Amino acid sequence: MDEIKAQKKALKKAYKKAKRKTVLAWKILTILCAVLMVVFIPLSKVLTTFDNTIAAFVGGTFWELENEDPNAQYFTSDFASAEEMVDYGLVLCQQVEAEGAALLMNNNNALPLAKDAKVSTFSSSSVNLVYGGTGSGNIDASTADTLRTALEKVGATVNPTLWDFYTTGAGKDYARAGSGTVATESSATAEVPWDVYTDEVKNSVADYGDAAIVTLSRVGGEGADLSYGEVNYLALDENEKALLANLAEMKKNGQIQKIVVLINSANALQVDFLKDNEYDIDAALWIGDVGITGINAVAQILVGDVNPSGSLVDTYCYDNYSAPAMWNFTPTVYDGYVEGGDVPEKGSTYMIYQEGIYVGYKYYETRYEDFVTGSGNAGDYAYSDIVAYPFGYGLSYTDFSYSDMNVQYNAADDTYDVSVKVTNTGAVAGKETVQVYVQSPYTEYDKANGVEKSAVALVGFGKTAELAPGASETVKMTVNKRDIASFDTYGAGTYILDAGDYYLTAATDAHNAVNNILAAKGYTVASTNGKMTADGSADLTYSWTEEALDTTTYSTSENGTEIVNQLSCADPNLYDGESNTVTWLSRSDWNGTLPTETVKLVLTEQLKKDLQDVRYNAADYETMNLPAMGKANGVTLYEMIGLDYDDPKWENLLDELTFDEMNTLISDAFHWTMPVKSVEAPGTRDENGPQGLTASLLGSDATQLTATAFTSEDVMAATFNTDLMTEIGKVIGNNCLQADIACLYGPGNNIHRTPYGGRNFEYYSEDGFLSGMMSAYEVAAIQEKGVHVVMKHFALNDCEQDRIGLGVWLNEQAAREVYLKAFQAPIEVGNGNGVMIAYTRWGAVWSGGNAGLVNGILRGEWGCDGMVITDNVLNVYVNGPDGVMAGVSIYDAMMPYVTDMLPQYQNDGVIVNAMREACHHNLYAIANSCGMNGVGANTTIKVVRPMVITIVIIIACAAVFFFLLGLVLWILGAKKLRKTEEYKAYKDFKKASKKAAQ
After folding, report:
1. Residues 837, 814: Cα–Cα separation, whole Å
2. 214: helix, strand or coil
């Protein structure tokens, strides 16, 4: 037996040796490559699908310039170096805050503090300021000064014991959670309970008692609105109330001399705590989100190095729920909707803008005037119990007087030249904003046809230089009469000018404007039995009379396009697919039309049809031949630089595009525009930027950009300084140029419809005119550097709840005069040439599929010929056919929905011709952008992949190759093994042993 075992062992050893020699290496290679295939083939597929995202995160590009022309620099930097650019931006951000922060309250001249003041900074937010919002507009403020360092730089001394309590002591456990990504819910207040403060901390205050500076911070962001209802995030929480109450007690006991509140929020805080001043607060300063250096300006304001000159861009209330829009701020499910039924889930909810034009001050001030004059069933409207600080309000450390108002009408350009003399009557140098408001007559025609008129509407503004005490300046402003016309939805279906009396007034704020006009009509506090809050100045008004209703002068746009109703699909009273109607808020009957509940909309068959993900039906269109494609005309994009959009040469260039190139250019544009080889068009890198250029959502250390993080947009607007907006645009444009960014997703131009909008920080104001004019100067300066601007989100993205698919219902007057007006001026005045389409539906129709909105108003009336891009394609209702037919030209598509969908229509001449026109818009934008820098007459484009994707694909391909090679060699080796003597001897031995055992 031992001999047999030894023989078996020897034969088996020889067999294994032969096997290792002929098979093992190939077996290992095959198995290893199989594992690599399992990993890298799906990985390559994922990376190829999300190549834009990967490149934005880790770096890389999709094209290279061959024979690059170093002299072909069409747009160049205004700065000698990146360092100079950064330094300029830091100073500018500080100046924006210096002129944007609004002083709301300053009892007994509590501010400014002494330059060597010893102060205690209270609240957990004092060590954790809000520098910017979250989501796509998030900024990096890691190098910014804190409130403490900013105060110390201007000479103040900050209580170190209290500061350490919040940063390293027991107070640190109550810090607000950090965030930068898209939110899923509202932030929550995070104040330290008073019983957590130790005796040591409380006793330290007396030595730093010149002032208690309390920071009240609120933060908003993409993805979620702020809490309202059971939890009012914009009201003080119980811990904040306790803090203020205890500070009031300390002040009473002489431990502190003054209480100063900083409102660090882009969302209007509910300031009911200031109504009766139960906490004995001395001063309140609104500072918004302060950006990278804004807190340094705040410190300068606090000690008097800077005199505040900001004016509120939102109405500040004692009761935020008093806004009529709050009755319709919660998405409502359509009556008849069944989950999993015949209506997509992303089409199941809606919101009705039942307040119409009466947003912000246009509600509060209009109802106030009607209360004073006894009109419109205004009821017992207690304005002073509701409004704390009106739109446009802002105090100074000095006083100003207005005089010598003069108005001249210029028939040649249909404008009014308004001038007013501003005199500094105080003892401190300062700047003053002059605001021009108009009042249009509210006529019987208006009442009969549903045209609404606000008591006042901002139509112009200007700002003085810094005036020394006793100095004067005549501020000159221009009012475009087009801004006075009203849109008549249900009558003329265009803009009209009513017959009747019109007023212009120069005012400090919207409420002052109403009082001035009331004074011009003969009203006083005395004559109204105290209904007026203050007497106005009739000397600061100008009036004229229009003798007849004019329905023609403003029925064409500035480029000559006829203006007609374009948005009836979003009006339940005009849309055929809705059986219920909506009563819009009207000043003809305030109490009778004020919303008290949400109107229930019913899913009819027509509404269900219109809510489907794709609405395009070829049967609705006349057939068209396919356009020419793939022709060899020899025209390159270089030759199109500077040519008009309608130049006939574009047709020759567009004939060269292949279908695949059109599909890629249109549908594969998540933060990149893809190159087009046939016309030698480079791609472009695109990025977010409402508060300045940012790559925070997608960026890594490899892709972070050198850029200025500015204040929130509301602080920018609060400066009322268009020169500063030009400078902001200049810096952002140069930041983009430095970073090779040719398209900017920003600024944000939606409206602060309510104080609770999650993204209010990246929108300018509650007022469409102010938003549009301030944006116009910023956009113009950005585009001067060859950066294509796509303002977002066009339109009605005024809340974050159900933003993907929410149906908004409103009338066209409100749409045009409030929400679209913020986009109109940047296009018509600022030479803007692009927008980012909102997720929102207009009624049932996705914004990008709304031909009246995009082709009708944006491209037709306003003349926008550039790139119109979607928001990130996260759902299939943001689709290719409906978009290109309505005027969308390119898709910010992380997901491949559109890339996969459009080829299904490659034999549909209607769709392919629309795709061709979309490419025309895109290539026109690229041809006139800094993306063409380096492209000369002989430059060609090489299409490449980002290196990381190329490496993964190479590994995947190599794995497949070597797997197949290993498999073949494994099989051949196995055959060779069977022919060896060792194999035969071992197998024969096993057979003999088995037979013997039987």
Report:
1. 19
2. strand
